[in-house]
Amino acid sequence: MSPSPEKAFGLAGVASGIRIDKLSEVRPIPPPDHPNNPKRDSVLLSSDHGPLPVLLLALTVVTGAVDAVSILRLGRVFVANMTGNVVFAGFAVVGAPGFALGASLVALAGFIVGAAIGGWLADRFHADRARLLLWACVAEVSLSGAALVTAASVANLASDGGRYSLSLLLATAMGIQNAAARHLAVPDLTTTVLTMTLTGMAADARHGNWRKPPLRRRFLAVAAMAGGAVAGAELVLRRGATADLVLVTAILGAVTLGAAATSVRDHGAWRRPPKV
User: Fold this and answer.
1) What are phi and psi of 266, to 5 degrees?
2) pLDDT exceeds 60 at position 2
3) Range of the domain at 197
4) What H or E segment, with its residue span, contains residue 28?
5) Residue 169's CATH number
């Protein structure tokens, strides 16, 4: 049975890029990037980056919690924010009270080693962002677990042995995280630095972009790090460093499981490296 004239015209129209709903109505099919056919984009999910935003926001919470234990229990040393650590090292050089040069240098060395490991992972999995995040999280949660065991077994974290061990382990983990986030290249989600995020918020707010996902994502990044710092400080001051590291390891474990599930189930185009 031959198709009706309406169906025949409809099939021909689709094949030629023209949508024909009726014989008297001819409309072009909008291309994928046309305003009437927009990409799926929200604060936590996007066509360009898939589930990466929500996973990186969780890692941003980790940053706040990790620096809570390093500042409050390891003696004024950053293990995630190397800008502050370099400044602290400068203070220690001139003998400012309360700053330890050795701890700052150990953290810097650990972070550099971690960043090198993260760079190697980025080279190894450069074509698949899902697998890059997965293996970076596997390495990071392993180091966090080792830091947790160390904190639970060392009687005095303020001693040089405890301070240096934890600084090295945590800074290495954060170096891996920072390098992986750099290669994942989700805008405004570096997971460890908020300077440019805050700059973008202030610079773009005047253009009336408050409701757009990128600006909202910046607000979430700031809130995530602040929330991690509040939760970490509360645990460190009331329960001890071990409790905070339990939280850090639990979040990293959850992100690792999420990255593993994504790596297996989601084969979207977002897994490919973003166009530069």
Assistant:
1) -105, 115
2) no
3) 52-271
4) strand 25-28
5) 1.20.1250
Same domain flag for 102 and 10: no
- d(Cα 272, Cα 203) in Å, to the nearest integer? 30
- Please write the tens of the pLDDT for every residue from 227-254: 999 999 999 999 999 999 999 999 999 9
Residue holding tokens 């990128």? 214
Give CA–CA dist 183/119, Å, rounded. 8
Write out pLDDT tens, residues 199-232.
877 777 666 666 666 778 888 999 999 999 999 9
What's the chain's Rg over C-alpha atoms? 24
Q: How far is CA 161 from CA 86, 88, 93, in A?
A: 21, 20, 21
- Total-model pTM: 0.80
- Return the amino acid letter for 180: A
Same domain, 18 and 58: no
Q: Where does the pLDDT of residue 256 fall: very low under 50, low under 70, confident under 90, or very high at 90 and above?
A: very high
Which tokens in the block code for residue 245?
């590291």
Pair 16, 129 in one domain:
no
Clarify whether residues 24 and 68 are in a common domain.
Answer: no
Using CA atoms, how far residue 12 sits from 1, 28, 256, in Å, is 17, 13, 48
